[in-house]
Amino acid sequence: MIGLMANSNLLVTSQCIGASLLASSASPTPNTLRLGLNMNARTAFSLLLTGSLSLAIPSCFSDPFTAAPNTSTGGSTGTMDGGTEDSGITDGGMGDAGSTDGGSGSSTPPTLLKPENGSSLPPARALLAWGPGTPPEGESISSYQLCSTDMGLAFISGSELCPNGKVISANNQYSHDVMAPLDSNRDYHWKVRANFSDDSHSDYSAIYTFSTDDSLVAWWQFNMSAGNGDTITDESGNNNIATVNSSDLENTVGNSQILGKALRFDGNEDYALVSPSTSLDSINNSSFSIEVRASSSGIQTNQSLLTRGDSDESLSNQFYSLGVISGRLVFEHRASGADLDSPQVTADTPIAINSWIHAVAVRDFGNELRLYQAGSLDGTPTADNSDSFSWASHERPLALGAFYWNTNSLDYLSGLVDEAALYNRSLRGYEILNNYCAFEALLANNPLPQRCFE
Fold first, then answer.
1. Which of 25-34, 70-79, 257-266, 348-357 is least confident?
2. Measured CA angle at 275 (ends 237, 308), to 5 deg
3. Host H or E run for residue 438
4. CATH class of this structure's domain 67-214
5. Are 216 and 425 in contact (CB under 8 A)?
């Protein structure tokens, strides 16, 4: 980047093809500008503005101005245009981005698969998946160039534009990368081209777009030191902090199946509590979803993963709970005044001791309860016509690792929880599969299941 100060001065510059101009001030003002320009060589332009001016130099300049590529085998791209190493416009040092393949024979660009164009996702992670296209005769695909942005189509449209450029190693059939974390209420645009063994490359694929909403209520990743009384950050931005009670945090050392760190519960009065909040209270009798990645190491009959309840000793009031009963996932929901035999759904697939599970519980308002394991529906959905209720007058905490009633706790978990999340709507099947596949990709559990690409 070259930084130029502009204080009501006239700036005249000329650029080669593919330059981008980003003009912004230190704090948002009416003078803040974001411009994407595609200009012919030696074309001059001028701007009159107040603020800080940064010029992203395209790859047609020689070093030291050419950005270095970010080479990956399938990691996280990071948040677009605001904190990535490869922000701005770059072709990753691969020559003139977006030109014809230039190889011997014809080629076709990669085919984008997931997320489907025009789809919507919760603001957590996205698995970007694509098929290979066709290399020139006698050549092979050596890598892919991935481009992505949340700044608008103008920043990625055109064969010479590749914001947040990233080089991805080629796999046998399908390739992928993970974009994370996603911001709320954004449109994300992405495209891919193939790089060939003869140093030529394909045209870029079509540009796909997916959007995010603001459905994420809480997201606990447990990636910090913790002990009795320590707190677990809520990555959703809603400040639903979990306070740990008599638990230890396990490092990833020696365990490739933990993303970052995981919270260990020993089955003996271990749990973490999340205080009531406006966002938590929005999960009442409406549609909502619970997502947990965990491993059970105990043989207790009942073990709770995530619950929130308000009850007297007769167990007659409201709660929702995702847990393990007799070796199977169980999702249960009861409204205030409902019958003690509250609606619940039980998974068909038993849980193996010390094996990791990705579990999602979904409630559709006035419809049914559903359970998913490893991105697929598990068990027979159960009708749920519970009465409505509100948490406003109850002020009961949410619990991780135990069933917490008033000031009493029971059904303690013996095992690990890697991540847990709560959403204020029912997640769709393809969104649940995306979350599972993105997690597996970040853990480098390759090859990913075929359904991650279908």
1. 25-34
2. 105
3. helix 429-442
4. mainly beta
5. no
